[in-house]
Amino acid sequence: MDTGTAPQVFYTDVTGDGKEEAVIIIQTGRGTELNNYDIHVVNAEDLSEIKVQGYEEIVANQLETHVAKNGDGTLAISVKSQGKEYDFNYGFDPAPDYKQDSLAFGGVYIYSLENQK
User: Fold this and answer.
1) Is 14 exposed, middle or buried (0-12, 13-18, 19+ CB in 10 A)?
2) Deepest of 21, 29, 65, 107, by most Cβ within 10 A of its Cβ?
3) 101 Cβ contact partners less than 8 Å away, ≥ 6 residues apart
């Protein structure tokens, strides 16, 4: 099956143990402005796969969110995760008629790897 791109392989210390793991990203499908990928992290010593958390596990008990609409048409978003708090300002309100005070999560997985996290 041709999915459009060759598998990508990166080597980085994902677990913070000082040893590099192999991060393998495979495109599994694509459509109009949407790309689907599987991500696998493999221990380089014994070739065992390291589980990558899905969003359901992350948000289950570890995430508190708050969304407030500002008077200038932007959104103020605060997120508390694993004891740390983050504040974001979203440059516009994508759904001005929708009243929502917390973030919602759906069935789309987006993974990125930055600064070993």
Assistant:
1) buried
2) 21
3) 66, 67, 68
What residues pair up with 66 in beta bridges, in sequence order? Answer: 78
Q: Find, among 35, 6, 11, the residue nearest to 23 by Cα.
A: 11
Tell me: pLDDT of 37 over 60.
yes
62's CB contacts (< 8 A; 6+ apart) are 81, 82
Task: Strands of the chain (E only): list them.
Answer: 8-12, 21-31, 34-43, 49-50, 63-69, 75-81, 84-90
Under a CB-based contact definition with an 8 Å cutoff, are residues 29 and 43 in contact? no
Alpha helices in the chain (DSSP H): 55-62
